[in-house]
Design goal:
The structure holds two protein chains of two kinds. By secondary structure, chain A is mainly α. In chain A, 68% of the residues lie in helices and 6% in strands. Chain A has a two-stranded antiparallel sheet with strand order 1-2. In chain A, strand 1 (38-41) and strand 2 form a beta hairpin. The mean pLDDT of chain A is 93. By secondary structure, chain B is an alpha+beta fold. In chain B, 22% of the residues are buried. Chain A binds chain B through residues 37, 47-53, 56, 113-124, 177-181, and chain B through 13, 16-17, 19-20, 22-23, 25, 85-86, 96, 112, 117-122, 141-147.
Chain lengths: 181, 147
C-alpha cells in the first residue's frame, strides 16, 4: 500500500464499492464514537462526552456526510463540463471520512476515556484529530476531483466553497437538534 | 537532529503533563460510597422537589454558603432555567469521582442527569468536603474532560 493509495484510493475504488465500504466504515466509526463518547460536530469541532444514545453519534456522521455530498454534487453539476455519476460522489465522499476513526480508536485506551481539561491527553487527542481531519480533507479533495472531472481554479474554489457551506450547514443542523427531540 | 526533535517532543509532552497534575480520578475501590450517596441524595431531592414546584429544605448536609445561596427563590430560578432549555428532570446516575492532588479534603462527585427534552445527558457536579458536607453544586453539559 503506497502513499498514493492512502491519499487517493479513488483511482481503484469508486461507485457502489466505495459506498459499501464507506457505509460499513460509517457504522463502525459511529459505534466506536458512541462507546468512547467522541462527538463530531462537523469536521472542525470534536467533543468528548459519553452523554448520548447511539443514534445521535450516527446522526452526526450521516449529517456530515450528506451535507458535504450535496455541496460537492451541486458544484459538479454547475461546473463540470463532462458527465459524472451521482453514486461516485456519494460513495467516495463517504469513503473519504474513514480517517476520522483514528481519534475514537485512541479514546478506547483507558488514559483517554476521561481526563482533565488542558492535560497532555487533551492536547494529544486534539493533535491526532487534526491530522485525521487533514487526511480526510485531502481524500475529499481527491474524491471530488476524480468523481466530477474538475481541474485548476474551478476545482480548488468550488471545493473550498463546498467545504465551508457544508461545515456551516452541519453545525446549524446539529445545533438545532442537540437539545431537542 | 532526530534526537533533538525527540527530546523537544518529550519535553513538550512532560510540560503539558504538568497541566493535568492538579486532579486525580479515583478508581472504584478508592471511591467513598458514603460521599457518593450524599451527593446523589442531595441532587435527587432538590431536582425532584423542584420538578413538583416545591423547594428543597436544606438541613445540615451543606455548608453555610450553599445553604444561604440555595434559597427557595434561587432553587426555583435555577430549575426554571433548566426546564426551559432541557426539560423536566428524569433521573440521575453516578459517573466518577475526582480529587485535587494537593487538597484531598474535597471530592468532586460527577453525576449524569437525564432531562426530558435533551438528547444529551447533563453533568450534575457535587463537591463534598471532609466533613461530608456539600460545598459546591453545578449543573452543566456533560464532558469527559473535567473542567
Amino acid at each position: 500500500m503506497d502513499n498514493s493509495y492512502l491519499m487517493n484510493p479513488f483511482i481503484r475504488i469508486a461507485g457502489y464499492k466505495s459506498l459499501l465500504i464507506g457505509f460499513a466504515g460509517l457504522l463502525l466509526i459511529s459505534f466506536i464514537s458512541y462507546i468512547t463518547g467522541t462527538h463530531f460536530n462537523g469536521l472542525l469541532f470534536v467533543g468528548f462526552a459519553k452523554d448520548s444514545k447511539f443514534v445521535y453519534y450516527l446522526l452526526e456522521h450521516i449529517i456530515g456526510w450528506i451535507s458535504i455530498f450535496i455541496f460537492l454534487y451541486l458544484s459538479g453539476i454547475i461546473l463540470s463540463k463532462t458527465q459524472f455519476r451521482l453514486i461516485d460522489v456519494l460513495g467516495t465522499s463517504l469513503l473519504a471520512r474513514l480517517p476520522l476513526i483514528i481519534a475514537p480508536l485512541i479514546r478506547l485506551l483507558p488514559y483517554f476515556q476521561s481526563f482533565v481539561f488542558q492535560s497532555w491527553e487533551m492536547y494529544f487527542i486534539y493533535g491526532v484529530y487534526l491530522l485525521s481531519v487533514i487526511w480526510t480533507i485531502v481524500l475529499l479533495f481527491n474524491a471530488f476531483k476524480i468523481s466530477c472531472n474538475l481541474k485548476n481554479e474551478r476545482l480548488i474554489i468550488s471545493f473550498a466553497v463546498s467545504m465551508i457551506l457544508s461545515e456551516i450547514t452541519t453545525q446549524l443542523i446539529l445545533n438545532s437538534i442537540t437539545f431537542k427531540f | 537532529m532526530k534526537s533533538s526533535i525527540l527530546l523537544l517532543g518529550l519535553s513538550l509532552l512532560l510540560s503539558l503533563n504538568s497541566f493535568s497534575q492538579g486532579y486525580k480520578k479515583l478508581s472504584d475501590s478508592e471511591v467513598d460510597k458514603n460521599k457518593v450517596k450524599i451527593a446523589q441524595d442531595f441532587a435527587t431531592n432538590y431536582l425532584t422537589q423542584a420538578k413538583k414546584g416545591e423547594s428543597y429544605k436544606i438541613q445540615d448536609e451543606a455548608i453555610d454558603i450553599i445553604k444561604n445561596y440555595f434559597t427557595e427563590q434561587n432553587q426555583k430560578l435555577v430549575y426554571h432555567q433548566l426546564k426551559v432549555q432541557f426539560g423536566d428532570f428524569q433521573s440521575l446516575e453516578y459517573a466518577e469521582t475526582w480529587i485535587q492532588r494537593n487538597n484531598d479534603t474535597m471530592q468532586i462527585i460527577r453525576l449524569k442527569g437525564e432531562f426530558e427534552k435533551s438528547y444529551k445527558k447533563l453533568e450534575i457536579k457535587v463537591v463534598i468536603d471532609n466533613f461530608n458536607k456539600i460545598a459546591g453544586f453545578w449543573i452543566i453539559p456533560w464532558s469527559d474532560m473535567l473542567k
